[in-house]
């Protein structure tokens, strides 16, 4: 094992593992992959070996997870990961043009990094902000309702060493800093935490529902999230015919249709 991962990183890995019940430390793999990404800017073969060693699992098991999720990068990532949504909603509203403009300006394509190693470009398939379409993110912070010019403006500020302010949420931090936050270490700098209510585009549907008296039958808006703790609150009801878990402890699947015998 190389010394890329210092004792401080090992301490952090142990702290992540301690969040999980004894014997279930392998559940720490997801944040631990963010941790190694915070050190190297991507999940390298050494990073996978580090996770495997700390968790007592195989490198193949780590690789199976690391290669599944797009937030784990397999190649060195720049300080600034620029993700442009080119999914249908954003694409037709200008996301495709913005991505093309950035690709031409930076001279890189999808999942490629500029020669100086500072900016990685990728196209993304729905960044879950369709109400602000078209959107792009820098290290997962949103820039809403962009067009090609606005996207270029943001990237040029990054090239100049500036940190443009996202449309909402906290101020920008580097990809490695963001990875450390995702591993569970809060950023205590001023402005590092975004606060405030949901924006108007997000609430538009709710406002229309209020205006036209559209409600969900039987729904109590004052119900605490999580219900009453015994699993009987809205959204947490247990169907009377819920199947028992299989003997291997895995979920048994969908509730069988009433009157339908399993063969
Ligand atoms: S389609 Fe772009 S955020 Fe959903």
Automatic annotation (TrEMBL):
GO molecular function term, any single one: metal ion binding
Keywords: 2Fe-2S, Iron, Iron-sulfur, Metal-binding
Domain of life of the organism encoding this protein: Bacteria
SUPFAM superfamilies: Thioredoxin-like
UniProt family annotation: Belongs to the complex I 24 kDa subunit family.
Stored InterPro entries: NuoE-like (IPR002023), NuoE_dom (IPR042128), NuoE_N (IPR041921), Thioredoxin-like_sf (IPR036249)
Renumbered residue ranges of the record's region Disordered: 217-263
Alphabetized CDD domains for the sequence: TRX_Fd_NuoE
NCBIfam families: nuoE_fam, PRK07539.1-1
Name under which the protein is recorded: NADH-quinone oxidoreductase subunit NuoE
Source organism of the structure: Planosporangium mesophilum
Cofactor: [2Fe-2S] cluster
